[in-house]
Amino acid sequence: MKLFAIFGDPVSHSRSPLMHNFLFKTLREDSCYTRVHLTDGSKLRETFFNLDLSGANITVPHKEAAYEACDEIRGFAKAIGVVNTIILEDGRLIGYNTDADGFMEAVKPFGKIQKVLILGAGGTAKALASRFLQDDVHVSVLNRSESRLDYFKELGLTCNSWDSFICEDYDLVVNTTSAGLKDDAYPAPKEMIEDILSHTSYAADAIYGKVTPFLQLTQEKGITYKDGADMLLYQGVLANHLFCNKRYDLKITAEIMQKSFAI
């Protein structure tokens, strides 16, 4: 039996095991998927091999540490330095990123996005910012402090800390921070978030499974939004495609995984 896992801190909330195990069972794959609570990202590689894993997903806050843990990086992950999927191949760890394309699939119903504001400056923010740039979308990034914005400045993006931010009009605002995951925090001061939401057509939160304070404000303002469930689904479809050596059609995989959300 092949064993797969998701690494994160926290990780107990993750629906990834349900999605992947439902698909493995449906397709009669001799595989199992579990959670690993990892507090120290530098231990990711060691833990992967100790558990004799065949592959893994990585969630906050270890996506950049996962990049460092790999022997080889392929595809989009190479450009952004962020890995959310690892495959064991001939004893070597191969890193990929399925977050960005998963998110783009999730927001397709919003239509044409030309201007986006990303809240946060972590691994997910890097993936989404770089992916939006590929589609010639104007990207702004807002983070609590200036210190983590260097990556985005090098891409030529509009970057601001809370102290320097001036709100504009946006097509989409995306919360990539963990604010609201384990607490009732906002990704920025509440007054700032309220102003931002008054200047956007759509909103999205990478967090799923709960209505975060960010999404609560979005609801109150009547803005069309998505939580992270669809992003989770589509990045999981792409990750499982790698887990199963690309043997199954992506549409079939998506249909099966979608059914797991009803469990």
Report on the architecture of this protein.
- With 263 residues, the protein is an alpha/beta fold.
- It has two domains: 129 residues, 3-Layer(aba) Sandwich (Rossmann fold), CATH 3.40.50.10860; 127 residues, Rossmann fold.
- 37% of the residues lie in helices and 23% in strands.
- The protein has eleven helices and twelve strands.
- The protein has a six-stranded mixed sheet with strand order 2-1-3-5-6-4, with helices on both faces. A six-stranded parallel sheet has the order 9-8-7-10-11-12, with helices on both faces.
- Strand 5 and strand 6 form a beta hairpin.
- The protein is globular and about 55 Å long.
- The chain starts with a strand and ends with a helix.
SSE map:
Layout: E1 2-8, H1 16-26, E2 31-37, H2 44-50, E3 55-58, H3 63-69, E4 72-73, H4 76-80, E5 85-89, E6 92-96, H5 99-106, E7 115-119, H6 123-134, E8 138-143, H7 150-154, E9 158-161, E10 170-175, H8 190-197, E11 200-205, H9 213-220, E12 224-226, H10 229-243, H11 250-259
Parallel strand pairs: 1-2, 1-3, 4-6, 7-8, 7-10, 8-9, 10-11, 11-12
Antiparallel strand pairs: 3-5, 5-6
